[in-house]
Specification:
Strand 1 (20-23) and strand 2 (26-29) form a beta hairpin. The protein is built from 1 helix and 5 strands. By secondary structure, it is of the alpha+beta class. It has one helix at residues 60-70, and strands spanning 20-23, 26-29, 42-44, 47-49, 56-57. The chain is flat. The structure holds zinc ion. Zinc ion binds at residues 34, 36-37, 39, 50, 52-53, 55.
Length: 74
């Protein structure tokens, strides 16, 4: 009878309390929420990414940078 090797899952629990901050008795949400499924967006480079529904939010600055790179004037 072979023993099953215990799987060491490296899955980190989402530390939701870190996403909130209480200021003057008010709860302030840190980070952005997904407009689709209301879960927290994860930062991926210069954009925000929802791990639940795969929604990706690109900041305006990043968009402008990409547009500038795409527009090859000259
Ligand atoms: Zn989402």
């Amino acid at each position: 009878m072979a023993k099953k090797p215990k799987s060491k899952s490296k899955h980190k629990k989402v530390q939701l309390w870190k996403k909130y901050e209480v200021k003057d008795g008010k709860v302030i949400r840190k980070g952005k929420l997904c407009p689709k499924c209301r879960s927290f967006l994860a930062e991926a480079g210069n954009r925000l990414f929802c791990g639940k529904c795969w929604y990706v939010e690109v900041p305006k600055e990043a968009k402008e940078g990409e547009a500038r790179a795409a527009q090859q004037s000259g």
